[in-house]
Specification:
With about 100 residues, the protein is α/β, with parallel strands linked by helices. It has a single domain, classed as Dihydroxyacetone kinase, domain 1 (Rossmann fold), CATH 3.40.50.10440. It contains 2 helices and 5 strands, in the order αββββαβ. It has helices spanning about 10-25, 80-90; strands at about 25-30, 35-40, 45-50, 70, 95-100. A 5-stranded mixed β-sheet has the order 1-2-4-3-5, sandwiched between helices. A hairpin with a 4-residue loop joins strand 1 (about 25-30) and strand 2 (about 35-40).
Length: about 100
């Protein structure tokens, strides 16, 4: 049986996103909306999802991959305000592609 150390379940997704950004140069976090993003000069690509096991989409932010990843709560999709902010962060003047997961 796996064991996990969690400081507080209410901040788990945010802490995971912040930790990921600290390990990868060029990424930063909008903590209020639990969004991990990078600066770019191409079409912005946004995706995201719940943080069931970890905010996995955060690991897909990088050159040639996502511009922005939006992390929902544990086993919950991101809310409309988070998604809107993710689109704003990804919009660098060349349009935004939103990848919706089903």
């Amino acid at each position: 049986m796996d064991k996990h150390i969690v400081n507080d379940a209410r901040t788990l997704a945010l802490e995971a996103v912040q930790g990921l950004a600290q390990t990868r140069p060029g990424l930063w976090v909008d903590a209020q909306h639990r969004i991990i993003t990078r600066k770019h000069n191409d079409v912005g690509i946004v995706s995201g999802g719940g943080s069931g096991h970890e905010p996995s989409f955060g690991g897909m932010v990088g050159i040639g991959l996502l511009s922005t990843a939006v992390a929902g709560n544990i086993f919950a999709s991101p809310n409309v305000n988070q998604i809107r902010r993710g689109i704003q962060l990804a919009a660098q003047g060349k349009g935004v592609l939103i990848i919706i997961m089903r």
